[in-house]
Amino acid sequence: MALTNEQIERYSRQIILPNVGGKGQDKILKAKALIIGTGGLGAPCGFYLAAAGVGKIGLVDSDKVELNNLQRQILHITADIGLPKTESGKKRLAALNPEVEVITYPIRLDSTNIMEIIKDYDVVVDGSDNFPTRYLVNDACVITKKPLIHAGIFRYDGQAMAILPGQGPCYRCLFPEPPPIGAVPSCQEGGILGAVAGVLGVLQANEVLKFILGIGEMLVGRLLIFNALDSTFRIVKVPRDKDCLVCSEHPQISKLIDYQEFCSLKVKKDCYIKKIA
Amino acid sequence: MDEKNPAAHLDLRGVVCPINFVKTKLKLEEMDTGQVLEVIIDAGEPIANVPRSIKEEGHKIIKVDKVEGHFRLLIEKVG
C-alpha cells in the first residue's frame, strides 16, 4: 500500500530510520496492539503507539477517570473525570492520530472473556495494576502463543520484560504464583512517581514497535529494572523455568484462573494496588 | 544500470528536508537493485543533505548536475 503525502510527512522521522523505511511503516500501519489498562503504563504506551501509526489499538479498562489518576495517566485530562477511561483514551488517541482505529473494551478481563479479545491482536501490552489480571494475561498469552510486553511499577522502581511464548520465559517463570496476601504493600501505602510510569510505559511501546518491525533485541529472557532515584537501568537474565506451571513442556495450568483480588490491609475487592498502575 | 534512461524520476523541487530524502528513500525501496533513479532537488540545504543521506543508506550517487539553479542526481540502487 502506497503511503499518502500526509502519511509520509507524519511518519517521516521514523521512515528515515535505517530498518524502517516504507516497508517498516507499512508493517506499523497494519499492526494490531492490545493495551490492557489505560493507566500509568497503558497511557504513555498507547500515546506512542498511536503516534507511530499502529493501525489498530485495543484499550481495555473497566475504570472511570478519577482526579488522582491524572498525575501519571496522561491519556486522560481533567475534563474527562467521570468518563470511562477507554472512552477518554479513545478520544485522546483519535485526536493525536485520526488514522488509528481504536477499539474499546470497558470491561474487567477474566477467564471468560480474555481469549475472545486477544485473538484479534498481534501483540499484547500488560499495563494492568493487579496480580489477578497480570497472571490471567500471562497465561492467556502463553496458551495462545501471543507476544506479551510486561511491565510493573512501584514507587520509584519499574521493571519490564518481553514474553514471546515458546522462545523465552513467561511471567510465571519469574514469579510462579501471585504473592501471598499481605506480602506486597497496597496502593495507598505504595505510591508512584508519574514519570516512572512514563518510563516503563514508553519502554513497552518501544518493545511493541521493535516486535512489529522485527528489529533489535527484545527483552526476551531479560528483565529490565529501572530505579528512578539512582537513574539506573539494570538487566537481569531470566531463564525459562523447565517446570513452569504454564509454559513448560508439562504445564500444570491448562485452564485460565480467576484469582481473587486481595489487599495487604483488608481483603476487599478492587483494593489491591489498584491505584498504582 | 542505465544512466541515459533512469528507471524512475522524482521532481523534488520545492520539497524541503527531510521530506525530499524520505520520498527518495521510499522510491528507491520500490526499485530493483541496479536500477537508476533520477531526482531533482533544490540548491542549498537539499543538495547539502540529500546526497549524503542517500550514501548513508548504501546507495550510489552516479552523477550530480547543476541544472538551472537546481540539482539533478542520478542514484543507483544498491542492495
Description:
The complex is a heterodimer of chains A (277) and B (79). Chain A has one domain (31-237): 3-Layer(aba) Sandwich (Rossmann fold), CATH 3.40.50. Chain A has helices spanning 5-10, 12-15, 21-30, 42-52, 85-96, 114-118, 131-144, 171-174, 187-190, 194-213, and strands at residues 32-36, 56-60, 101-105, 123-126, 148-154, 157-163, 222-227, 232-237. Chain A is of the alpha/beta class and 277 residues long. Chain A contains ten helices and eight strands. The model of chain A is unreliable at 264-277 (pLDDT under 50). Chain A is globular, with a radius of gyration of 18 Å. Chain B has 79 residues and is of the alpha+beta class. Chain B has a single domain (8-76), classed as TusA-like domain (Translation Initiation Factor IF3, 2-Layer Sandwich), CATH 3.30.110.40. Chain B contains two helices and four strands. Chain B has a four-stranded mixed sheet, covered by helices on one side. The chains are: A alpha/beta (277), B alpha+beta (79). The A-B interface holds A 3, 8-9, 12-13, 15-16, 18, 21-23 and B 18-19, 21-23, 25-26, 29-30, 53, 57.
Walk across the major sheet of chain B and give the strand order: 1-2-4-3
Order of helices and strands of chain B: EHEHEE
The CATH homologous superfamily of chain A is called NAD(P)-binding Rossmann-like Domain
Helix proportion of residues of chain A, in percent? 25-40%
* CATH class identity of chain B: Alpha Beta
How much helical structure, as a percent, in the residues of chain B? 25-40%
Oligomer: heterodimer
Structural class by sheet pairing and helices of chain A? alpha/beta
CATH superfamily of chain B: TusA-like domain
Beta-strand residue percentage of chain B: 25-35%
The profile of the biggest β sheet of chain B is: 4 strands, mixed
Shape of chain A: globular
Give the second-level CATH assignment, the architecture of chain B.
2-Layer Sandwich
Distance between the termini of chain B: 13 Å
**Given the helix and strand composition of chain B, which structural class is it?**
alpha+beta
CATH level-3 fold name of chain A: Rossmann fold
Number of E strands of chain B: 4
Gyration radius of chain A, in Å: 18 Å
